[in-house]
Amino acid sequence: MQDNWITSLGLTPSLPGEVLLGRRLIHANDRLHLKTEEKATLPANNTKRLDASGAARALSRQVLAEIGINNFSVLRAPTGEPLWPTGIVGSLAHDDEMAVAVIGRAKDYRGLGIDVETAVPLPGDIVSLVRTPEDICGQYDSSALVDRILFCVKEAVYKAVYPLDRIILNYDDIRVDLSREIAYTATRKINLNIFFDSKIVVIAVLPQG
Question: What single DSSP character describes residue 81?
Answer without folding.
Answer: P
